[in-house]
Amino acid sequence: MAEDVPEYYFRIRENGAAVFRLDKSNRQRRIEMEEIASVNVRNGNVKPHGDAVLSARDQAAIGEWLAARVAVIAAREVDDILRLADQLNLTAQWAHSRADGAELAAVTEPLLLAMHDLRAVLVRRKSERRQEGDA
């Protein structure tokens, strides 16, 4: 078990993670977790925890984790949007085939406003991309 334990553990938080250095070489064969830093995924800030001094090895491991985490979050974001497109299709089918008048009345305005807003943003951004391509 102790042989399979990585050198660092990243406890995920909303905006990043708490970073722990793992010590598996103690006499009781327990894994000791020493918090050494916190990482903010949004801005890339790394703050040492308390009096911890980050070694080059610590910083490299944190940098690798940060790059991987940013990639995972980006992939999830795209996947969430693609699932939203599926959900919009399912919503259209529901409205077409199963929804009654009261259900439609409850969802029509919020959906129309959200879709109008999304359409306006997408059209504007598509226009900007085309203009950048012409420049």
Order of helices and strands: EEEEHH
Strand numbers in spatial order across the main sheet? 1-2-3-4
Name the beta content range.
15-25%
Radius of gyration: 24 Å
Number of strands: 4
Low-confidence stretches: none
Number of domain units? 2
Give the proportion of residues in helices.
55-70%
Shape: elongated
Spatial gap, N to C terminus: 59 Å
What structural class do helix, strand and pairing data support?
alpha+beta
The helix tally amounts to: 2
Quick check: average pLDDT? 93
Biggest sheet character:
4 strands, antiparallel
Structural commentary:
The protein is α+β, with helices and mostly antiparallel strands and 135 residues long. It has 2 domains: 2-98, no CATH class; 100-135. Helix content is 56%, strand content 19%. The protein has a 4-stranded antiparallel sheet, covered by helices on one side. The longest helix is centred in the middle third of the chain and has 42 residues, at 56-97. The termini are far apart.
Keywords summarizing the entry:
135 residues, alpha+beta, 2 domains, four-stranded antiparallel sheet, 4 strands, 19% strand
